[in-house]
Amino acid sequence: MLVKPENLRGAANICSDSGKRPLAAMFGADETLQGGGLAIYCLFYNAAKRDIDVLKAPFPADGPLEYQSLTTLLPAAAWYERELHDMFGFEPQGHPDMRPLVLHESFPEGFHPLLKKYPKDYDARGHREYEMLTSQGEGLFEVPVGPIHAGIIEPGHFRFSQAGEAMLQLDAKLFFTHRGIEKAVEGLTPMEALPIVERICGACSVANTLSFCQAVEKCSEAEVPYRAWLIRTLAAEMERLYNHVGDTGNICAGVGFSPVISMGTRLKEYLMQLNEMLAGNRFLRGLIIPGGVQYDVTDAMLEEIEEVLREVEAVYADMVHIMWEQANFVNRIRTTGRVRPETAFDLAMVGVGARASGSTRDSRKDIGYGIYDELDFEVITETAGDVEARIKVRIGEVAQSLKLVRQLISKLRRNAETQLAVELGELQQEEGHFTWGISESARGDNLHCLLLDKEGRIDRLFVRSASYPNWPALTVAVQGDIIPDFPLINKSFELCYACIDR
Amino acid sequence: MLKMLEAILHGKIATENIDTTGHKRLRGQLQCDGSCDGCGACASACPVGAVSVADGKAKIDYSKCVFCGRCVEACARKALVHTNHDALAQILADSAVEVSEAVTAKLGRSLHVRHLDAGSCNACDFELGAMSNPVYDLHRYGIAFVASPRHADMLMVTGVVTRNLEQALRMTYAAMPEPKMVMACGACACGGETYGSTYAVVGRAADVVPVDIAVPGCPPRPAAIIVALCAAADMLKERM
Hints:
heterodimer; A: Beta Polymerase, domain 2; 2 domains; three-stranded antiparallel sheet; B: alpha/beta; two-stranded antiparallel ribbon; 12 strands
């Protein structure tokens, strides 16, 4: 639906239905090469239609880029609007926090890299301020952490405002690993862009590729073979498994609970070796392509998967048993890092983070992409919203993924198709419309929005990973807890940096 | 508590020997055999410019290669194939790699590493983490990751260097005591071509700090990184 910029806020209010249709994403596009101007797109999940509603506000190419900010209405819009300013120069009026988000101090003011007038490798040097938000008062102090952390962790800067041990406020400066991926893929064909898309994030490699491929496939009449969907879904669930199993152990690293960390990393290793067997890469890269999959799965591989999963399931059950048996561990995780259901709702959280706070959102059920409608699985939810709830959701989801993988294995055995991929032919989009693809990563739904030019090359790709809506929730979750619990709370979300930084 | 002991006993010893050969399907080192006619289809298929044709054969620059398999698909004669062997580290520094007996006696093989993500997709980072799992057990080689650059002998860089991290990389390197060395881990840090050149990317690690060892791979498998680290431990003794 098209709206004038001055009506965007009002229209978004109606579309979101007081947040019942959560904000899925908000992104800009410079469509001047396609004969248009600039535009803001707002996307809302519509569970009743199993679809995404789209609002588009076109702006004149040379005109003012001001509009009424949505953030005071929909708190979930806060980051998107900061990014709209950084990347295109949009001016959301009345936004409570217009500090930079993506571009740090070494970039000049007024440089908006996703405008078409800037070449990809434009070397803009300058200086801008990036002020951290802190609390002031007698006896309060700040603790700066990062961007380079003490372990093998992705880079991010955290500024804690402390009242003694208690965290009053946390401000996170992220986007350190911003590589300009959305600009890098412009002008490429989807096939050329694929190796880059696979490398947005390691731990969400399948999810990103699967969302991207679906967005591409919607531009073609060709139908992806059923067997390809079986293999894709298998890969997606294997990715969830290795992430969840590894994360369960890694959360225990937040309290130094060594035996469980060790068991978790060991199981994750066995799962990653299966990935290598399936895709020739431990992060399942190279398997999913637009139109289908690159490699088949043999019966011998299916047997190997079954055997390893039996072992993983048994040891994982022991791991979980050991965790719940330790009263001091349970004491650390219960009521720690709480996100209330209202907060999860306001921030339009997704994935494990949302489902631990009472939400039932899961794009595998809500959108039902691919073949998930014919598979039997449950959405696991908890209501406490604390570290314990997020662990429990993961434990539940591991069981569901095992169940899914076993269904897929039996379907693959019965399926005798030989075709693994189709030619997509000439790619076409309805004029003025983008196509999107979604997939449920281990961290929640991963959404790609794709605009092609007339030659079928990428004019704009917007990547909204699951970590994007959940990061702001972490800063809320820590409030009032003590600072030694931060690693624990952080790990219980296990958000990607690379995914959001792009 | 009983369950924990039971699980530890049941788990036995998980640690395995390092094996730089992977599953049959692993896209590892490339091999170009005699039937190559030098048509160059592999070079044009490469998304990162890692393949060229020299003397009628495909030549691979492993520092850039992301092991995606495009060149192998493009080869009509099937002359170019992936083996399932890891592409191993390249020693870039001039210093000799022979192990000095005297220093070995003094220090033993010991290496303290500080990791720095300069803009990676986190796959390399996860593989660095995996080296500490019981299967690889990095500590058995006397190699450990440390929390501060001031405790480190070696800086291990993953990812392309982004504009937002360039300063952090420079400062981390400067904070390390001599003798020090730098390892670039993975295609981004070694070659810097993974995403092409953009407004947000400075380049490969060597464009910002002096790199001694480059470990190819996207990401390199833990076994390949361990082999490189052991070589680095030997090299460092040369510099003391």
